[in-house]
Automatic annotation (TrEMBL), chain A:
NCBIfam families: trpS
Top enzyme category: ligase
Pfam families for the chain: tRNA-synt_1b
Official protein name in the record: Tryptophan--tRNA ligase, cytoplasmic
Length: 398, 312
């Protein structure tokens, strides 16, 4: 599923099923924004969020983790006028083992839910994984429920959150919207966006509308009936952009608002930006099931260091913060801006050693994983049922 | 030596248990057995002889087409993930005193099998009768579940029928549903090769699952104390939550009020402390209370789902 541009050199590949930088390099996000046509989030936007929500903006906003958007300003304009919106995010449940990278969009979405006090729908695309990863229907449904538990453990408010799996929910108003969307996208267009070939089976070709329609409030009559004008904001990783470019193209043609997007960059593997985080290599990421011991061992052994080879050289040249993984991870997860700036300065100047940075990172990550595990232990099957029940959410905007 | 086939059949007759017997060439598998008795109606049984990490043994006796997932059973028995595996061949002879391919609930008649736990497939009950080997694989006998129960009771065993295909979740508030079927004592066997065999099995089907579960258990001791308080009953205990929250706040306050700090900040200490409390505890409190909210809602939701309609 490669989309090769008509250029001479090989381009980087970013789509929902493949993320690959140009040979041996990192993902060029500026080029990506250009190529996709979305906007960069700048400091004024972050300040605006701070003003509107009276909350400190989430660490991911402050550190440019969520760095791109489409129409986020319109959402904020409407919010200022007193018009609400709802959030839509999702996960493709392809494995039981979740790592920190998987949690990032959910952590950020939880912040958005709390800061703006708006409802959220979470789509578990068990059908997509059944199609693309060739899982059985039962296995993909099982994984969806298991993943739902980790998602719930991120701290979503049950009185404002509806989690659904495609196999359970597709039908009724949702399906009607799928057909409406389908009628607006030609086969050629979908080939152009997703790179399908004549060899791909029709399961794949007919999937995109499934991920598109949760952007429309009429897909959820039990939640938003009579609110066809309600806007939607989609926090996601930037590789999902193609789905929503397609959706935004179709929306006005069927009388709906275009969904807005707020997009994140990719979480680097422990081995470095050029490495790939892979479910089959447990040492490429920190998993939510890792013990404190595992975290310590993984960071110490596998986190790619931007420090110099010898202490003398390090004290002289300082660390290369561009490639240093511990520092990058701290950028994601160390909330204290002042402490991070201090570490950046001292480590970059060579006064702080890699070992110290790694130690701090281990502390931060262990706390996060411990907290997640505690919350996860409290999630029962009944709780999953409650989150996934097709029920009204009377206080979803309070 | 264990009971012989003839003795067993005599015993059944004594107990006035109805059965029919069918001789056939020695069979080692259900497929082979089916060739001879598969056309007679009723259900064929497949019988698994299993062992857990503490050398406790189990017979799982099920209809041939019932799906038996050892991983699921292991969790349901409270043995954790990957805690069950096929018992080594030697133990068949030593404990059940039956030949290879002849595992049968009827082998529990032998004294050596007194600590073996028996799990019977609930689906047996839906069959007119089921086929088992009477301690020898050159014969199959058909028994109704009543007959089987009668026999088991005669050897002081409680027949336990289980939905073997069920996969209930097991967690803090749902104890393993089959935990009561775990034998209270393990079987001590003569030969040490046992451990070699079981460690070989170890690598096979427990790769990723096993690794993760042992990792979890090493970290358990440190967060055990915390885990105890994560039972749903505890989570929605208002008194307890208030106590815990006030405790962590007090702890923080007491930690910060030192002679040094008083000297340094004087009157400002109060304001500083107040800020510190807010910063450090806010996130923690938020998480705890969200868990509380979600748990309470879930309990209400569950109650609502199981509510009886109002009587008119």
């Amino acid at each position: 599923m490669e989309i090769k541009e008509n250029g001479e050199e090989e381009q980087q590949i970013v789509n929902p099923w493949k993320v690959e930088a140009k040979e041996g390099g990192k993902i060029d996000y500026d080029k990506l924004i250009d190529q996709f046509g979305c906007q960069r989030i700048d400091q004024s936007l972050v300040d605006r969020v701070r003003r509107l929500t009276s909350h400190t903006p989430h660490v991911f906003l402050r550190r440019d983790v969520f760095f791109a958007h489409r129409d986020f300003n319109e959402i904020l304009d409407a919010y200022e006028r007193g018009e609400k919106f709802y959030l839509y995010t999702g996960r493709g449940p392809s494995s039981e083992a979740l790592h920190l990278g998987h949690l990032i969009p959910f952590m950020f979405t939880k912040y958005l839910q709390d800061a703006f006090k708006v409802p959220l729908v979470i789509q578990l695309t068990d059908d997509e994984k059944c199609i693309w990863k060739n899982l059985t229907v039962e296995e993909s449904q099982r994984l969806a429920r298991e993943n739902a538990k980790d998602i719930i453990a991120c701290g979503f408010d049950v009185t404002r959150t509806f989690i659904f799996s495609d196999f359970d929910y597709v039908g009724g108003a949702f399906y009607k919207n799928m057909v409406k969307v389908g009628k607006c996208v030609t086969y050629n267009k979908v080939v152009g966006i997703f790179g399908f070939t004549g060899e791909d089976h029709i399961g794949k070709v007919s999937f995109p509308p499934v991920q598109a329609v949760p952007s429309f409030p009429s897909s959820f009559p039990h939640l938003f009936s009579g609110q066809d004008n309600l806007r939607c904001l989609i926090p996601c990783a930037i590789d999902q952009d193609p789905y929503f470019r397609m959706t935004r193209d179709v929306a006005p043609r069927i009388g709906y608002h275009k969904p807005a997007l707020i997009e994140s960059l990719f979480f680097p593997a422990l081995q470095g930006e050029t490495g790939k985080m892979s479910a089959s290599d447990p040492n490429s990421a920190i998993y939510v099931t890792d013990s404190a011991k595992d975290i310590k061992s993984k960071i110490n052994k596998f986190a790619f260091s931007g420090g110099q080879d010898t202490i003398e050289k390090h004290r002289e040249l300082g660390a290369n913060l561009e490639v240093d993984i511990p520092y990058k991870y701290l950028k994601f997860f160390l909330d204290d801006d002042i402490e991070l700036a201090y570490i950046g300065k001292e480590y970059g100047a060579g006064r702080m050693l890699t070992g110290e940075v790694k130690q701090r990172l281990i502390q931060v990550l262990t706390e996060i994983v411990e907290r997640h595990r505690r919350a996860r232990a409290a999630v029962t099957d009944e709780m999953v049922d409650a989150f996934m029940a097709v029920r009204p959410l009377p206080n979803m905007f309070n | 030596m264990g009971l012989s086939k003839e003795h067993l059949l005599a015993r059944l007759k004594e107990l006035q248990i109805d059965f029919s017997q069918y001789d056939h060439p020695v069979v080692l598998t259900v497929e082979a057995q089916a060739k001879y008795v598969g056309h007679l109606g009723g259900g064929l049984s497949k019988n698994l002889f299993l062992k857990d990490k503490k050398s406790r043994f189990y017979i799982v006796s099920a209809l041939a087409d019932t799906k038996v997932d050892l991983k699921v059973l292991s969790v349901r028995l409270g043995l954790g993930k990957g805690g069950l595996r096929m018992a080594p061949e030697e133990s068949l002879g030593e404990i059940l005193q039956v030949p290879l391919g002849c595992v049968t609930p009827l082998s529990l008649v032998n004294e050596s099998a007194c600590n073996v736990s028996l799990l019977l497939d609930q689906k047996f009950k839906s069959q007119e009768f089921c086929f088992f080997h009477p301690l020898s694989n050159d014969m199959s006998i058909s028994l109704t579940t009543n007959g089987l129960d009668k026999f088991l009771k005669s050897i002081k065993r409680d027949p336990s029928y289980v939905d073997l295909e069920a996969n209930p979740s097991v967690g803090k508030d749902q104890p393993p549903d089959l935990a009561s079927l775990v034998p209270s004592s393990s079987v001590v066997l003569a030969d040490p090769p046992e451990t070699a065999a079981s460690s070989k099995d170890c690598t096979e089907n427990t790769v990723s699952v096993g690794n993760k579960s042992t990792k979890m258990s090493t970290s358990k001791p440190s967060i055990n104390a915390k885990k105890a308080q994560d039972k749903p009953a505890n989570i929605t205990d208002v008194g307890k939550m208030v106590d815990d929250l006030l405790d962590s706040t007090s702890l923080l306050v007491l930690k910060e009020i030192t002679e040094e700090n008083i000297k340094e900040h004087g009157e400002e200490l109060g304001e500083l402390l107040s800020k510190k409390i807010k910063n450090q505890l806010a996130a923690e409190l938020h998480n705890t209370i969200m868990i509380f909210k979600n748990t309470a809602y879930t309990e209400g939701f569950h109650a609502g789902m199981h509510c009886h309609p109002k009587r008119s």
